[in-house]
Design brief:
disordered N terminus, Arc Repressor Mutant, subunit A, mainly alpha, 22 helices, Serine Threonine Protein Phosphatase 5, Tetratricopeptide repeat, globular
Length: 391
């Protein structure tokens, strides 16, 4: 690998500025304000200042769907939000027509396919929530939970423990608040996966229990679903995690963190192209911290899986620079540099890494994360080249 820190920084800027093509950004911006209107490709192409065929190609390449498919998904999500928010003050007919669905039978079928229930069931749940009076303990639990959230996102030992301490009180105040349990489950899974404590089996059991409880309590909350899915990933339960994540995106297609986890999930399954496409969506929805660093690291993992080790090193470095305490991710950067053939630089980085993780071995690193066997084998090989002890 050649170049210094300036090369990493300039690559960082270029990567963010080209997260989505300009024509696609213009099309999405216009569509968000016209979701209830018929989709006319020629008009949309004029708004986007692109040829219709080019615009269709960009939708498929970067979003994995067509303009009509994207709009349909957004309409369904908005309809669901109305059902939940308005409860007894809404009818299926009014919401369907208001969101551009003229055929009620087709709307009900598509809604059930997306969310696993008919609109009437969602309305009933909205009726129950609308009769709930203000609860001081619940309100305080929400405040305390959101205060803990940045510490949970850090994926660092001290901050993880801080998050768990902060999450103790909201779980006491509101035992039925799913998000607090989901975040706690995610943190206990971090402890087990990243060797943050000497009780990995106990931590895994706690993470599994909390992830299950969170799902039961809040099956319609996108963030709760996403965080409980993340806990399952770290427990190596990828299929269950994937199903839960898909539900999160059906419930809330605008949730940047869900797209981040979607990109990581694709990387775990070895789908590098899908991971990059999905993480670009996340960058478009939230191109700033506190989530940007974990997105960059995920991009690095996707490039690593595709054996683009120079790109992997650049992306991971961008993430670590944004949040220096993410030294666990430096494993990927070190291995990437080693696998480009830059052994001297890799060994220098390897020495820095082992000072931060003195008990790290290549064997341990190969078992830590649920990527494909080839990914983990290459990771271990690269770390050994960089001077990390084999076992």
């Amino acid at each position: 690998m050649t170049g210094g820190d300036d090369d990493f920084g300039m690559s960082h800027v270029r990567a963010f500025s080209s997260a989505l093509p300009a024509d696609l950004v213009r099309a999405l911006s216009w569509l968000r304000g016209h979701l209830s209107e018929p989709v006319q490709l020629d008009l949309l192409a004029q708004v986007a200042d692109a040829r219709p065929r080019t615009l269709e190609t960009h939708f498929k390449m970067f979003l994995g769907t067509t303009p009509l498919g994207w709009v349909r998904r957004m309409r369904l999500a908005r309809a669901r939000q109305e059902f939940i928010r308005r409860g007894p003050d809404v009818t299926v007919t009014a919401v369907a027509l208001g969101n551009g669905f003229s055929q009620l039978g087709r709307f009900a079928a598509e809604y059930r396919k997306a969310f696993g229930e008919l609109p009437s069931a969602t309305i009933q749940r909205g009726k129950k929530s609308s009769t709930t009076t203000f609860d001081h303990d619940v309100d305080e639990a929400i405040r305390l939970t959101l205060d803990a959230l940045p510490f949970a996102f850090a994926v660092e030992q001290a901050q993880c423990n801080t998050a768990l301490e902060k999450l103790s009180r909201p779980q006491e105040l509101a035992p039925n608040y799913g998000l607090a349990k989901a975040i706690a489950g995610w943190c206990w899974a971090q402890r087990a996966a990243h060797d943050f404590a000497a009780t990995p089996e106990v931590d895994r059991n706690r993470a599994s229990r909390l992830a299950a409880e969170a799902y039961e309590l809040a099956p319609d909350d996108g963030l709760t679903l996403t965080l409980s899915s993340g806990a399952l990933v770290l427990l190596h339960e990828l299929e269950a995690a994937d199903r839960r994540l898909e539900r999160a995106l059906a419930v809330d297609p605008w949730l940047a963190y869900a797209w981040i986890r979607r990109g990581w999930m694709s990387a775990y399954f070895g789908d590098s192209d899908g991971a990059i496409r999905e993480l670009r969506i996340a960058l478009h929805l939230m191109p700033f911290e506190p989530l940007r660093h974990i997105t960059c690291i995920g991009m690095g993992c996707a490039h690593f899986a595709a054996e683009r080790y120079d790109r992997a090193a650049l992306w991971v470095r961008s993430g670590v620079e944004a949040y220096p305490d993410s030294h666990w991710a430096q494993r990927i950067a070190v291995a990437s540099v080693a696998l480009t053939g830059a052994r001297a630089e890799a060994r220098r980085m390897g020495r820095q890494l082992t000072r931060k993780e003195p008990n790290l071995t290549a064997s341990q690193a190969r078992r830590a994360w649920p990527f494909t066997p080839r990914f983990m084998s290459c990771l271990g090989d690269g770390l050994e080249i960089a001077g990390v002890p084999a076992a």
